[in-house]
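Appendix C. Worked example: Kinesin light chain 3-like isoform X1
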Amino acid sequence: MFLRPAAANLIKRRFRLPSRTVSSTSGATTIPLSSRTKFSYQYHGPKDFSWRMNYSHRDPRVWLFLSGNAAIILAIHSNTVLAKDASIESSPENDMEGAEAMGLRKIEDGSVISNIHTSKWRVFTDKGRDLFLQGKLEEAEKLFLLALQEAKEGFGETDPHVASACNNLAELYRVNKAYNKAEPLYLDAISVLEESFGPEDIRVGSAFHNLGQFYIVQRKLEEARICYERALKIKARVLGLNHTDYADTMYHLGTVLHLQGKGKDSEALIQDSIRILEDGGQGESIMCVKRMRNLAQIYMKSNRLEEAEKVQRKILHIMELTKGWNSLDTVITAEGLALILQSAGSLKEAEELLERCLDARKTLLPQDHIQIGANMLHIARVAMLNSNQLKKVDTSKAICELEKARDILNESIRIAQSSLDKSMRQNRKIHSYGASGDIGKNFRVALVILLQALDALGLLAINKQELQESKQDECLPNSEAENALLRCISTYKEFVTEMSIAEFPEVKAEYLKCLKHLLSLNGNSTTQTSQQSTRVNLQDLRDEIKRLELQLSPSRNRKI
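Step 2, the predicted output written as structure tokens:
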């Protein structure tokens, strides 16, 4: 309870949107439905990566408008799209799936108001909803526009039915990424709700929460913050400080503050949102686990490894109790803990966990699945770190660890290469039929893993040579290391040409790392023999590195 004052202080603030007063969007009730779990690759920068569980929740925030005897149910996509670093993702497929999940529900209106306009409104809304869920957005837009017109004429300009019609059309525009068209409609809906129910009604609070969702997808963080703070204030007054819906808004506000660099307030809100769920008996729920995962990531990014480890162990305990080791959810959670332990220097426990994860994956996944290759890469890195610790104590044992890591890396490379070759064959087959292929996540994951494994193999060769020749004055050329790094570069160029992957920053980052290591390898070779043996032009390397650094610079990405 000691964190509650942080939220209380926030909700006492006054706030105003820059251009237009924002009201709310609707009274929301959460409908617990089934959820699906997806596994995706999470990129944390050049040093690390992990697998991540993405939950497509079937518990959307449904808006319930009441006007007399009328009960109008519709919805807005409320899945928060936030960075792994907390980065924001959005895709037409995810948007349509989310809209269907919470979707524009069929109207069941028992209103005593009935005329030709209200009848048309019902027909246009239901037909538009069906077309929307089929992905026929252009046809759906026409019907939603007609529904809005009929709602205004049949119910009046300030009736909640008009707010629902505005919402439906706004949701369609949001899915189409026509944000300039969507925003005025959301605001109109909010204005109607405030006039109908008052500015402090719970429907208004839920509306502000959902408008915050709309803003955060566009990275309009300040607007999102204002909306969430308004929603939090209303929910605190109406629902109380222990309500899970209050905790939901608190969590999202905390996430926005984290993206704005306000770490202390952010952590207090996220921690308290977790505590409310735990106090309410939802400590093992998907939502609570998701929040704990994000909190652990925040701790990791700020290098607070002890706190990150504590949270991750708690998550693993929940996974083991609820799902056991026959679930990939548990495996991925254990892998996350292993990576934290690796960063903290607890290599023995990290290695044991990763080995257990590998055994589980070999049982649960098909042979040569890309997750198995990634798991092996993690184990090889731990072995290399073990070697580094042993080199001052026992050189022979240090070399043995490197040889163990080399064998594991070669297997990881084989699996990743096999996965890429399969993707390329499928891509060529698609193009042979005149269709346009789309590069899937698995392809990008496999390519990143291959580049990382090749780069690690190059560094391993360098470390091994240093151990074997530590007493020699002259630094001899390392062809094994150079071969691995050159293969890393040639692999990147091959897939840039054939699969058009140049636009993916996580792939570029790995390519850049290989270039820098190759430059360092050749730049440190000062003898005439080593200079003659190199197969690269050092100036070309420097130019390519500079070009990529410019492309990946944060300032350039913000402009884009």
